[in-house]
Automatic annotation (TrEMBL):
<dbReference type="GO" id="GO:0008270">
    <property type="term" value="F:zinc ion binding"/>
</dbReference>
<keyword id="KW-0863">Zinc-finger</keyword>
<protein>
    <recommendedName>
        <fullName>SWIM-type domain-containing protein</fullName>
    </recommendedName>
</protein>
<feature type="domain" description="SWIM-type">
    <location>
        <begin position="1"/>
        <end position="33"/>
    </location>
</feature>
<keyword id="KW-0479">Metal-binding</keyword>
<dbReference type="Pfam" id="PF04434">
    <property type="entry name" value="SWIM"/>
</dbReference>
<dbReference type="InterPro" id="IPR007527">
    <property type="entry name" value="Znf_SWIM"/>
</dbReference>
<dbReference type="InterPro" id="IPR006564">
    <property type="entry name" value="Znf_PMZ"/>
</dbReference>
<keyword id="KW-0862">Zinc</keyword>
Amino acid sequence: MVVDLGKRLCTCGFWQLSGMPCVHACAALARVRRPDEFCHQWLTMEAYNNTYAFHINPIPGQAL
């Protein structure tokens, strides 16, 4: 596989499709940078925690 970190590309195509570095890119990133710097911001734990920070209460009288 060929990885281009500058363009965020890998010939396997996973990175382009998912927005997350593939295993090939992670191997290259482990040598030079942190892989989390190359993931979309929506895929971070901070974004996950912000998404589920609020509670959604059920509507009274509705069957669940």
